């Protein structure tokens, strides 16, 4: 896997960090093949290295709450996918890219 992937394990839940749609698809297929439990996806604007925050204000506001709730899950995998810088992202009113998606397999 690419160096941008990172795996954080906490007993029965894990977080896989990826960048972009291709890496997201690869991580989803890997998790599905490994029978990694319930699969969740979170898409957020990339983080500014200087501040550690996403360029997307909705992502900044919602991420702590989403991560807190995900931390209560068991037998689950969260794929955390950054979508790039604002200029690279889809051009529409950025209200918002926040999305929590349950993928059933």
UniProtKB/TrEMBL annotation:
One of its GO terms (molecular function) is protein-disulfide reductase [NAD(P)H] activity. PANTHER family: 42-9-9 PROTEIN-RELATED (PTHR12452), THIOREDOXIN DOMAIN-CONTAINING PROTEIN 17 (PTHR12452:SF0). It comes from Capsaspora owczarzaki (strain ATCC 30864). This is Thioredoxin domain-containing protein. Pfam families: TXD17-like_Trx. GO terms for cellular component: cytosol. Residues 27-87 form the Thioredoxin domain. Belongs to the thioredoxin family. InterPro entries: Thioredoxin-like_sf (IPR036249), TXNDC17-like (IPR045108), TXNDC17_dom (IPR010357). It comes from the Eukaryota.
């Amino acid at each position: 896997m690419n160096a941008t992937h990172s795996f954080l394990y906490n007993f029965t839940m894990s977080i896989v960090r990826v960048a972009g749609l291709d890496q997201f698809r690869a991580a989803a297929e890997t998790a599905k093949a490994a029978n990694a439990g319930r699969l969740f996806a979170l898409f957020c604007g990339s983080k500014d290295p200087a501040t550690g925050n996403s360029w997307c204000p909705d992502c900044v506001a919602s991420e702590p709450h989403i991560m807190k709730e995900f931390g209560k899950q068991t037998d689950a995998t969260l794929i955390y996918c950054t979508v790039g810088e604002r200029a690279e992202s889809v051009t529409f009113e950025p209200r918002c890219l926040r999305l929590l998606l349950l993928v059933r397999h």
